[in-house]
Amino acid sequence: MPPEPLTPEDILRATEDVLRRYGPAKATVVDVARALGVSHGTVYRHFRTKTALREAVIRRWLHTTTGRLARIADGPGPAGERLEAWLRALFAAKRRKATDDPELFATYQVLVEEHREVVSEHIADLIGQLTTLIEAGRASGEFAPGPPDAETTAHAIHRATAVFHKPAHAAEWSRPETADALTTVIALLLRGLRA
Amino acid sequence: MPPEPLTPEDILRATEDVLRRYGPAKATVVDVARALGVSHGTVYRHFRTKTALREAVIRRWLHTTTGRLARIADGPGPAGERLEAWLRALFAAKRRKATDDPELFATYQVLVEEHREVVSEHIADLIGQLTTLIEAGRASGEFAPGPPDAETTAHAIHRATAVFHKPAHAAEWSRPETADALTTVIALLLRGLRA
């Protein structure tokens, strides 16, 4: 028994370990409970279903990226510089996840395919941050006004940088030319926003 | 026996049919010969190995896209309009292949994964066409001069539109919002090129 009361974070960390060890197809709530030295009823008191537990662990994984990005989106400085820093931080965060622990990254790819609604929330969160940045740049006169509206433009930027953040392209992320290409793409998009 | 002498095109068409019917893992040169009513030696006189035959059939499939695009790249009119038409034609050609005959599209996805050097040639061909278009726009003063050079900019445009032509994204191509997103992305990139 753990000396401190069990927190949701303890359960999520143990779930990630169990998923990594047994793989998404085999990992069960009983495995998580056993890893924590508690009954599976204790786990179910915090997460009512296996689906709820898996969704929470995916949200936690995705939030390590979006939390850092939110601080850039809401930070000081010209909108163009913040947008550039935001796009670079998104690429760096995804690349780090893919290269530092490829096995865990592959595990999460399987999980997100099975819980697309959590991914949709994540994308909506990113689009929201981009929209805020574009609105800030338009309000200060740094970016040209619409149409299209800021949210449509945010979607366009998200798609135009997909090769730098969509997991389907992860194999390209460690190549030096990919980082160089991101620099050129960002410069082109910023000129487009300012024009 | 066919009444006319067997052409390479006859063999490639038959190979595509055989690949579609048996799948890339099982289709053999003997199957192609049987479909044509000739000996496998006759097929080998035109294509010296199974690999050479498969590469030729992939090149033929990819060329149905690049041939049409080359006519747009080399056509008349302002570079910006040609670039827009070129990007729309690339998306339309890929979407048509993916939706008109999804089984054949899936077959070719397996083939291209096994013959990456043919894909590299294809991408080099597309980058060459984009580079020509950007150079034309810079020469006429329609696009801003570099740096970066036209080829680097061509690579950036190819990557920024990847979700509209890379097969990993094919599932999104039939959604109406994808065509709208392409319009916004093209407008943003063209403003960036002109700025």
From TrEMBL, chains A, B:
Enumerate the UniProt keywords alphabetically: DNA-binding, Transcription, Transcription regulation
Q: Which residues form the HTH tetR-type domain?
A: 5-65
Portion annotated as DNA-binding: 28-47
Q: Name one Pfam family in it.
A: TetR_N
Annotated Gene3D superfamilies? Tetracycline Repressor, domain 2 (1.10.357.10)
- PROSITE patterns found in the cross-reference section: HTH_TETR_1, HTH_TETR_2
Which InterPro entries does the entry mention? DNA-bd_HTH_TetR-type_CS, Homeodomain-like_sf, HTH-type_TetR-like_transc_reg, HTH_TetR, Tet_transcr_reg_TetR-rel_C_sf, TetR_C_27
| UniProt keyword annotation of Transcription present | yes
Name recorded for this polypeptide: TetR family transcriptional regulator
Annotated source species: Streptomyces cheonanensis
